[in-house]
Amino acid sequence: MTKKAAPKVGRHVLWFSWKLVTFFCIAFSLVALFRLHLRYDISSSAVSRTRSRIHYDGPAKIAFLFLARRELPLDFLWGSFFEIADVENFSIFIHSAPGFVFDELTTRSKFFYGRQLSNSIQVAWGESSMIAAERLLLEAALEDPANQRFVLLSDSCVPIYNFSYVYKYLMASPRSFVDSFLDRKESRYNPKMSPTIPKGKWRKGSQWITLIRRHAEVIVDDEIIFPVFKKCCKRRPPLDARKGKMNMKLQKQHNCIPDEHYVQTLLAMSELEGELERRTLTYTQWNLSTTGNQNWHPLTFSYANAGPQQIKEIKVVDFSCFYIVKDGYLDEYCDL
């Protein structure tokens, strides 16, 4: 009877051995996956650190980043602007409609030939695709270590100073020019953004920014704030008479207008507001209608209201702002 028990013990030992081997295989696999994931995260973050450590001694460039719907209708003016500049002092990047190519058939200025991004996306106003396009422009421009200043422009922007003046002005300042403030009457903040984006860090400002290289890197390398904007900022739905009073609620939800908040909020979250000139270098005149319609938009200048005298008046505008912390909010006071 005692001799017959041996095979049973052997089976138990064999079963336990296989169970132990399986356990260690799973454990080693999980460790290997974790190490690979960790290595990927470290290498990804190292891209930013390596890019920041690059010491560039050559001529510094201004990267002009055009956010266009399709073509650049004022390309001939920009052509004159770049014509008198040293090509070593600037670079051009254009985010246009996917597949649109700038060549002799689509632009009147040779400076824009082939300057479109190859990975452009379809952009919708009021949605996160707008800031995604801005990030693509900055990412492309950061590939060249000579680019030290980054100017975001629309397809309706025009220069009112010559290149030499603009270059000296931007290079003389170690700060980014970002209009950024906390609007006490602001209602665009989505509570669902908390706790990743606390309401106290929510900022508002002009979309048209000028960045130093380090701040451009912060925007491109962001993997925390942008996903929250992408998730929580949706374009408000159109009015639907069938929904009655529900329309009022629907018109308020997710109306964050990310292009007026993302960069400002990200830099505030990154504790970089002390490195900003909190103003934009792009002059905009808003249509402050008194008809009760609060859907304000910037005015489009025409030949009739953009003559030498009007441009001279714009140049002498003294736009200064100061900020006061009041009741836990940051108030902006500006004098024109």
Automatic annotation (TrEMBL):
Q: Which residues cross the membrane?
A: 12-34
Q: What GO molecular-function term can you cite, just one?
A: glycosyltransferase activity
The record describes its membrane topology as: Single-pass type II membrane protein
Where found?
A: Membrane
Which is a Gene Ontology cellular component entry for this protein? membrane
Taken from the record, one Pfam family name reads: Branch
**Quick check: keyword Transmembrane helix in the entry?**
yes
Q: What keywords are assigned to this protein?
A: Glycoprotein, Glycosyltransferase, Membrane, Transferase, Transmembrane, Transmembrane helix
- Name used for this protein in its record: Core-2/I-branching beta-1,6-N-acetylglucosaminyltransferase family protein
